[in-house]
Structures are given as structure tokens and as C-alpha cells.
Amino acid sequence: MGRYVSINSRKERDMRKQEDAAFNRREFLIQGSIAVAGASFCLCGLGGCATITGSGATSKLTAGALARTGGDIVIDLAKAPELAAVGGAAKIVDRKDVKPIIIGRVAETSFVVVSIHCPHRGVEVEYQHERKHFVCASIGSSAFGLDGARLRGPAKKPIQSFENTFADGKLTIRGVAV
Ligand code: FES
After folding, report:
1. Kind plus residue range of the DSSP H or E element containing 134
2. Is the Cβ atom of 56 under 6 angstroms away from ligand 1?
3. Tell me: the pLDDT tens digits for 144-154?
4. Do residues 116 and 60 make contact, with C-beta atoms less than 8 angstroms apart?
5. Ligand 1 within 6 A of CB of 117
6. pLDDT for 110-157, tens place per residue?
7. Rg (CA), the chain
8. Which of 25, 71, 83, 177 is most buried, by CB atoms within 10 Å?
9. Residue 156 alpha carbon to ligand 1 centre in Å
10. Is residue 74 within 8 Å of 82, Cβ to Cβ?
11. Pocket test for ligand 1, best of 102, 117, 120 (most atoms within 8 A of CB)
12. Helix, strand and coil percent figures for the chain, each rounded to 5
């Protein structure tokens, strides 16, 4: 009988050890999942999607609105609804022959054009008409004046701005063709 009890005790001890090991593995996985979920949450909460994608919310300039002339480009406003109203903005980011830029319509006959990439880490900037500046779409939110001067944020440098002229419904931007 004593021997029978001792075999049973050993079996119970082994079973308890296995259960403990299984529990520890489960706990490890659960804690790991919580840690990963926490990390993801932190990234989304603090970094914002923009820091992951690098993109802002500005619409791309309508295809066909742009023509090249030497080192300049000419935008036909009649074909660019993004820039039809004062306060509108458009970006050019996917052409190999034009530098990536953002254009903001400041007034009926006045536009501002800057490089779209924030000098901090390259996230796109957006035109904020009401505040009369460009602001980075990332959490760092560096801001730049309409002339490209750095106003605040982690960016250490100004953002490049480009001369432009507007006449007869056409916006000419200088020095942006590659
Ligand atoms: S990329 Fe960091 S503030 Fe713009």
C-alpha cells in the first residue's frame, strides 16, 4: 500500500510539474503579447501613422495639370482643382522628373511652394492656410513659415522654398524640374 501511495505521489508530483511548466509557458506568452500590444499602442499613440508611412493628408496634383519647361514646371490651374480655391494645396511626390514639393494657394494670385520633406526625418509637411505655415505631419510637428524658415520643432534647418509666378491661370515654379 505504501509503495502504491509513493508511486501515486510521484505521478502527482510529475503532473504538477508539467502543469506548472505549461502555466509558465502560457503566462510567458500572455505577458509577451501584452508587451507587444503595449508597444504597438505606444507607436500608434505617440508616433502617429504619419511617422510610419511618412505621408501627410495633402492631395496629389491632378495628373495632366503639369508641364515641364527646362528647369521649371508650369501648372495649369484650370486642370488642378486642388488649387482652385484660396487655402487649397497640392503635392507632387511621385514624378522622377520633378522634385517632391507641396504648393499652397495663399491668395487669389499668390502661391507658396516648398520641398515636401521635413528636414528632420523626411515626413511630409502640410500647408495650413489659417496659421500661414507648413507643419510636419509627424508627431514632432516641426513648423515652417511660408518662406520655409524654421519656426519650431526638432528640425534644425529651414525647408527649401521655390520661387514661383502666376499669370493667365498658369503657375510657373522655378528650379524644381530634375
Ligand atoms: S520628421 Fe520629425 S518633425 Fe518632421
Report:
1. strand 133-136
2. no
3. 999 999 999 99
4. no
5. no
6. 999 999 999 999 999 999 999 999 999 998 789 999 999 999 999 999
7. 29
8. 83
9. 10
10. no
11. 120
12. 35, 30, 35
Cβ neighbours of residue 94 under 8 Å, at least 6 residues apart?
Answer: 60
CA dihedral 124, 66, 64, 128 (to 10 degrees): 40
- Here the cell at position 40 is 504597438
So what CATH class is 66-173?
A: mainly beta
**Residue 130 and residue 112 in contact, taking contact as beta carbons nearer than 8 Å:** no
- Are residues 67 and 73 in contact, defined by beta-carbon separation less than 8 angstroms? yes
Global confidence as pTM: 0.73
Task: Determine contact, residues 48/140, Cβ cutoff 8 Å.
Answer: no
Q: Where are the domains of the chain?
A: 1-49, 66-173
- Alpha helix segments (H runs only) across the chain: 2-42, 48-53
Q: How far is the CA of 28 from the centre of ligand 1 (A)?
A: 37
